[in-house]
Amino acid sequence: MNGFIPISKPVINEEEMKAIEEVLYSGMLTQGEAVKRFEDAFSLYLGVKNSIACSNGTVALDLVLKALGFRQGDEAISPAFTFIATGNAILYQGSKPVFADVDPRTFNIDPEDLKEKITPKTKAVIGVHLYGQPFDLKEVQQICEDHHLALIEDCAQAHGAEYNGRKVGGFGNGCFSFYPTKNMTTAEGGMITTNDDQLATKLRLMRNHGDTGKYNHVMLGYNYRMTNIQGSIGLVQLKKLDQFNQKRIENAEFFNRNLKKDGIDTPFKDSRVRHVYNQYVVRVEDSFCSSREMLMDYLVSKGIGCAVHYPMPVYRQPLYRRLGLDQTVCPVAEDVSRRVMSLPVHPSLSREDLEYIVKTVNCFEA
After folding, report:
1. Is 241-362 a CATH 3.90.1150.10 domain?
2. pTM for the full model?
3. CATH code of the domain occupying 14-237
4. Residues 6 or more apart from 114 whose CB is under 8 A from it?
5. Cβ(121)–Cβ(98) under 8 Å?
């Protein structure tokens, strides 16, 4: 091991630098041909009809909800255990986020609890493919069809992940993030994927001030564009995505075989999915639970980055408590949030790094 092992690390090299340089020399820096080529390549990769690039993953969620016509009084159901952006995008519409509990093994949205949270005000379900593992798309898709609800896939951590051999992002309306910690990056940036041509047309207008061209603004829109610089990076990164994901999977499998510390459970993987391990998340059990922070301090002192994704259910965040949205308690989300801990799994890890992480964790004494 050489130096500190970070919890995440984007893989950027000369190909990305050259792509950026070409855009800079062209003088065409904002949304243009590079973005269009990235969108087309992304659609081909996922097997979807439309990809609409935007400025980040949160904007992707916001735009989809706006395009679906969300307004005050509407409700959307999302998992209680996820990054706050999923719930915030619902708040942006003046709508109400309703939180469903999660599966204790995958930490993804629990279809049974989801069904219990549906009301006449529910318009959509936002499922999150947490840590790179697809949620139960078969069950959730059926629930949405039965209740005439829109299905939104939060794919921020799941680029290239698959459910029954089919890539996520094409089951409903997909929302991707290209933040530097993701499986591929454009520094910042997002993408919406959909097979609904009418919705795609609306989304393209909305991300650019409702402009059809030549300053002809036909609807209220926003400045949610992606730049050509980001698009050029995305084109290069997309070509490497399968390689990146394979390395993440191999790193995760090494940990699964070799982490032997009592009280630390390795991740469960659904047999129907291709899990791409945006995060490698272990579960700290009762015999160890009070020592999670001690373990993290120990790892950092040994030069190993680690993190908690996420330390509380979304409804426990101060913002949501002030809004009075913490009335529903999700017991599994409460339990999971005090047990999970992420270890480095990114593609830049060497075999020496992997062995050092395993040895260090296995030698820990509370």
Report:
1. yes
2. 0.97
3. 3.40.640.10
4. 77, 100, 125, 140, 143
5. no
